[in-house]
Sequence to fold (446 residues):
Amino acid sequence: MSSTLTNQASSPTAPAARTAAGSPDATPSRFGFATHLACRECGHTRALGSTHACDQCFGPLEVAYDLPPLTRARIERGPLSMWRYASLLPVPPDVASRPNLDPGWTRLIRADQLAQVLGMRELWIKDERGNPTHSFKDRVVGVALAAALELGFKVLACPSTGNLANAVAAAAARAGIRSVVLIPADLEPQKVIGSAVYGGSLVAVKGSYDDVNRLASELADEREDWAFVNVNVRPYYAEGSKTIGFEIAEQLGWRLPEQIVVPVASGAQLVKIDKAFRELIATGLADQAPYRVYGAQATGCSPVAAAFRAGHDVVQPVRPATIAKSLAIGNPADGPYVLDVVRRTGGSVADVDDGELVAAIKLLASTEGVFAETAGGVTLAVLQKLLKEGQIDPDARTVIVNSGDGLKTPDAVTTAIEGISAIPPTLAAFAERVQGLAVGAAGKAG
Fold:
């Protein structure tokens, strides 16, 4: 009874959704309850292996499963990491006991102060800073690493805009294998250091991420024992993002959010969060309920938002020009599927400029103590924009995803320290400097 959940807006010939009851005869293998790969476009299937494109129509492949019956109690007894959802991932049953970074189970923060500023009733932040290398990429790399080892690869590799490079280098070091990461030469220094420190091979390439990605694809064809996590083992890698959706639902008391805003780079995170929600419904772990998914891009790299506004199904590649480098993918692989998801759920894709994203980073930090990287600023700024346009319901249960740590992109908010200068170590000098603050505090006390 093998089946997969596919995007409901994709080809009508694609495999049908998994039944809610699960298969009592399902037996885990070295890939858990994963059974095969299925094309998102034509439905053609093939055995689990190191390939990411359909040999019939060249469409993208994703993992299909034959799941056993699952219960909330069983999952809740699992480890405090993403491996509590191992039965829903293409990983060995003993994955949690193997040397890995144990990513996931990050905080879901109720953002009441931010909600009050925005005029919202219930707002939550899924804060991915708590992962081992401080971004959600640890999740996808965790699944890719497990699959790569099962497939016999000797090197873990990737093209990256920064966060993925950090995650691959760290995960490979922990697993005791070699890493090779390729990055654009103009990447933020903090992210370069965050990869180099783990001792793997770091290669800076002149050009954009899309140039780096093309080189990685060529290398993947040549290096048979290299697992490029987002190329030749991409179907497994992408499944890791589902755990964000699983955790959000569990942390909300096994309820789905009514609205969720997700940053869009390649688009895989948004598509897989939607897949997670549908899997939870199909397995009975969450009740059937409508939800709307919204995508967030920076104006300087917003090909999916542009396609959405124009009513197109095809995403036209662009050359990135934004400080949000973690979202600077001009030719997003999952762009068409993002459009499918947001249209099916009644959401949208919008973009904001660099000034708006910087202001949103500061707003999030000052209201909730969360220092987001530029992608998180994009997500909050898009939420603000959609609220003003009436596209988001301020009274609905809403989640935004902060995909990484602001300490990786501090240059975006250097204006926060403008005007700071040293004072003499005297009470008079201190009183003069903080006079406005003191008056304000007195006013509040009164």
Observations:
- The radius of gyration is 22 Å.
- The longest strand covers residues 178-184.
